[in-house]
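Data card: per-record layout.
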Amino acid sequence: MFEIIKSALASLKDSVILFYVIPVVLAIVVGLYTLYVDQSLNLFGDIVGPIGIFSALMFSVIFIVVEHFLKRKVDFNSGNDEDKRYLENYQVFTRNTVARISFSIFLAGLIIILAFILPQIKASNIWWFSIRNSFFSFFLLQYIALIIIVVKDMYAMLIDDTEQKK
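The structure for this 166-residue chain is written out next.
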């Protein structure tokens, strides 16, 4: 499990703003909104279903990405330097994408567990309620950012398929 987290976080170095900064800022905004505007904000109710569906879709994408890599490994087996570089780059891409998808599935499981546990903890005051919503929002926003990053990766893979020379 830690290997998935470690490799996924390492692959997200180029997405610091999307994966870390934006979720932190928006989670703080959700917390402040809960604190000062709408104290009945409940983020937990309708989250589990869509996240479960996206996780299943993401799981199937792992096999598609690996299958594309294996196909390229056969297609670009000429042994020349250009093909070797292409395969090395595509292998890094595949490894990063699989790590990100695996981490998104882990994060989805965490969000689903939090969606069941956090509402059971009674908020003794509005500050705890606000912190609870911010905490949940942070992980939810990271999940959404990860979906966006994976979609971007899949787009790059599909564009590469259309421009493939072999």
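Known properties of this structure: The CA atoms of residues 58 and 101 lie 6 Å apart. Helices lie at 2-11, 16-36, 48-75, 81-117, 126-162.

See the next section for split statistics.
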